[in-house]
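Backbone-to-sequence.
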């Protein structure tokens, strides 16, 4: 059977329980998905950076970085270009689900979920992410930090001033600016600021 979406990016299953990872992969691969796995948060981020997965199925209790931290890092780096679904066996209360969704996850499932429902919800999320135009919106292409830097640039701050406001180093600000220029396909900071106003990322006369 072919992949469920035209987007051929893999799915990433993040869990330190090898048997559960195998169970999930055995559910998803027969319906056409390529799957990758990671057993801890750091490896999950490495895999995501290397393969840009379509969907990440993410446990919360992980060695080193926990699932919440991984979710935040993925959103900072990939914005809305990937789907994130928590899949937890330990945090299953309504409050846990609410907390996970407030962290900007797209979905939250417990490990007792019916296997057919797991496949259906994963497929629904994959289809939703796959149908988004990945380059259509500048706001989606830029990470939250890159947007912050761009907005401060638009308000006339230099690298040192932005670094002080965001509590990061001027070198880190310079790296973010390089990424912004590349993603906006412009060659100068002035062009980036013009694009920010044109795409309504910054409102004329707005305050920081």
């Amino acid at each position: 059977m072919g992949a469920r979406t035209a987007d051929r990016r893999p799915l990433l299953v993040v869990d330190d329980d090898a048997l559960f990872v195998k169970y999930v992969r055995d559910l998803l691969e027969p319906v056409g998905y390529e799957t990758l796995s990671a057993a801890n948060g750091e490896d999950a981020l490495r895999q995501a950076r290397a393969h840009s997965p379509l969907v990440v199925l993410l446990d919360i209790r992980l060695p080193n970085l926990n699932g919440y931290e991984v979710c935040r890092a993925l959103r900072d780096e990939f914005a809305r270009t990937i789907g994130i679904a928590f899949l937890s066996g330990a945090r299953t209360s309504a409050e846990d689900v609410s907390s996970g969704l407030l962290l900007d996850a797209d979905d939250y499932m417990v490990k007792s979920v019916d296997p057919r429902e797991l496949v259906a919800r994963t497929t629904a999320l994959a289809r939703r992410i796959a149908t988004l135009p990945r380059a259509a919106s500048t706001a989606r292409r830029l990470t939250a930090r890159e947007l912050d830097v761009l907005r401060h640039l638009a308000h006339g701050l230099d690298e040192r001033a932005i670094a002080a406001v965001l509590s990061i180093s001027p070198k880190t600000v310079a790296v973010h600016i390089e990424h912004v220029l590349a993603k906006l396909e412009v060659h100068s900071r002035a062009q980036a600021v013009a694009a920010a106003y044109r795409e309504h990322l910054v409102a004329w006369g707005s305050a920081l």
